[in-house]
Design brief:
The structure holds 2 protein chains of 2 kinds. By secondary structure, chain A is of the alpha/beta class. Chain A is 37% helix and 23% strand. Classes of the chains: A alpha/beta, B mainly alpha.
Chain lengths: 281, 276
């Protein structure tokens, strides 16, 4: 039933043979368990949206997955035939933002070159690197920005560039940390369209952290409600109708709202401002 | 070295006749590019205030050297700065205290401690050379030390510049690509501590941070990619260094501060050129 509700543009056939597996994953910060008992499978070609209230540990989970924070349990890539990969999982990561000031002279090419080449930036950039960057940027429609400075391009363009970088080299798992938080409606849709295209192209498993429940539901195949641990996990429609959503966020969704998800998207956002809680009693 | 002397002696200028100017010029040519490249990364990492604190920690380093009874306190200046850098790295990474607040606290402490220890018995004046520096007294042995440091830093700039640069953009992003971010950040903090404290006796702790930051800030105003940013910083730094050294000879002023005034001039020029 959830399949029927998916945007036909986005539904694809996944190989379903490989996946990323989190087993007994947990994070302790300053002696306190921030995340515990997380067990998840993310299948190839599947976009999983990670939702949860502020302080639920969404970003902490991502930071632990990329290896920035120590964690318990395992994060493994499983090849088809249930063969666990022995090497560390290759992760593509799109951060929420970059720490850049307006005077920064870093160009899009510098960003790529410093990530994929050992040839020092101050010596120059080799043609092979330029070509690789150009190819990946073309995939997200940003190849004309190669020599522009990061500080002078729009937030939406920057997010698509970060996506292109995350796909160089093609990862086993793509992590997106609220990539559309700073984008307007048009920018958001363009970004999600690009992500979907990439998912088809590379059969990627994608984990997307999002604050925007309806937008996440619109684009995801699967949704995970996180609050210190996984509260529920399933098709977006089922998750949004789950009473746990009301308990966690203080508001819920009716079937009708989710049926007419697309036209309601902007209407819902307005309503949430006017009526923060108890809207659907 | 004799070739160097011959080369400078062949210049038709008054300052070129003195041996100490030959050594000082060589020191400037070694120190300024070193500081210039590092300054670019210091600005990218928003660590300008951190490097300032490293400079000021030299007061305590000098005092510790005097307490132990060292004739030349270089070892304690470097040792103390490195310990402090590692401490501040841990504070920045693992404490909730805002970075600028914690640096201000640490800086207040090391300056106060250094001044108290050095001023015991009213003897502070004899340490004022560390405040303003004196590049004209550098000896060939000390130049050798500087050359070794410049060589080590140069090797690091070749092999690790991109890694340092990428970590400065976003730490999580760098982690996701397998870079050892904690190690790189700690290594960079230590490198700043070492380069700053080695330069202090020649440049002076009051102006060392300007020599680190100004050339990079100047280049940043005009550069439209990272390569030009770094090379621009090196060029501004070398020009300020040489002009500052020669002017300080004719004006009979402290060399470090004279170099910084030139760098300020170049910065002002870059601001004017920025808005065309």
């Amino acid at each position: 039933m959830s399949e029927a509700n998916q945007n036909p543009r986005l539904s694809i056939r996944s190989c379903g043979e490989c996946c990323t597996r989190l087993r007994d994953f947990g994070v302790r910060l300053r002696g306190e368990a921030v995340l515990e008992d997380i067990n998840l499978h993310m299948h190839c070609g599947e976009l999983t949206a990670l939702i949860g209230p502020n302080g639920a540990g969404k970003t902490t989970l991502l930071r632990a997955m990329v290896g920035e924070l120590p964690h318990s349990g395992t994060l493994r890539f499983i090849h088809h035939g249930n063969v666990e990969s022995t090497s560390p999982i290759r992760i593509g990561y799109v951060p929420q933002k970059l720490e850049l000031d307006r005077t920064s002279s870093t160009t899009v090419l510098d960003l790529f070159a410093s990530a994929i080449s050992r040839w020092p930036l101050w010596v120059g950039t080799r043609n092979a690197v330029k070509q690789a960057a150009h190819e990946k940027l073309a995939l997200v429609g940003a190849d004309q920005l190669l020599n522009r400075r990061l500080s002078e391009i729009s937030v939406g363009q920057l997010q698509r560039i970060m996506l292109a970088l995350a796909l160089t080299p093609v990862p086993e798992l793509l992590l997106l940390d609220e990539p559309v938080a700073a984008l307007d409606q048009g920018g958001m849709e363009l970004f999600y369209q690009t992500v979907s295209k990439m998912r088809q192209e590379y059969d990627l498993s994608i984990l997307l952290v999002s604050h925007d429940l309806t937008a996440a539901a619109q684009f995801a195949d699967r949704m995970i409600l996180l609050n210190k641990t996984v509260l529920c996990d399933g098709p977006p429609r089922e998750i949004l109708l789950n009473p746990l959503i009301r308990q966690t966020f203080g508001f819920g969704y009716t079937e009708a709202e989710i049926e007419g998800r697309r036209p309601l998207l902007s209407a819902l956002q307005h309503e949430q401002c006017a009526l923060p809680a108890g809207r659907l009693s | 070295m004799s070739m160097w002397h011959a080369l400078i002696l062949s210049l038709p200028y008054e300052w070129a006749q003195y041996e100490f100017m030959h050594y000082a010029l060589l020191a400037v040519l070694l120190i300024t590019p070193l500081l210039a490249v590092m300054g670019c990364l210091v600005i990218n990492n928003q660590m300008a205030f951190f490097s300032e604190a490293m400079g000021h920690s030299a007061l305590t380093g000098v005092a510790l050297g005097a307490l132990i009874g060292l004739g030349n306190p270089s070892a304690t200046i470097i040792g103390f700065a490195v310990l402090l850098a590692l401490g501040m790295f841990l504070l920045r990474r693992y404490s909730a205290l805002p970075t600028d607040t914690s640096i201000a606290l640490v800086m207040a402490f090391v300056v106060a401690l250094g001044v108290v220890l050095l001023s015991r018995g009213g003897g502070f004046a004899k340490y004022s050379r560390y405040l303003i520096g004196d590049i004209l007294t550098i000896t060939p042995t000390e130049l050798g030390g500087l050359a070794v440091l410049a060589g080590v830093a140069g090797v690091l700039w070749v092999f690790l510049f991109n890694a340092f640069f990428f970590v400065s953009l976003n730490r999580s992003l760098a982690s996701s690509r397998g870079l050892p971010t904690a190690f790189l950040e700690a290594l960079f903090a230590v490198l700043v501590a070492v380069v700053v404290s080695v330069s202090i006796p020649w440049v002076g702790l009051l102006v060392i941070n300007s020599m680190l930051i100004l050339p990079a800030a100047t280049a940043r105003n005009l550069a439209w990619n990272t390569r030009r940013y770094v090379l621009g910083s090196v060029i501004v730094s070398l020009l300020s260094g040489v002009l500052g050294l020669i002017c300080s000879y004719y004006w009979n002023t402290a060399t470090g501060a004279t170099i910084v005034l030139w760098a300020c001039g170049f910065f002002a020029l870059s601001l004017a050129l920025r808005r065309r």
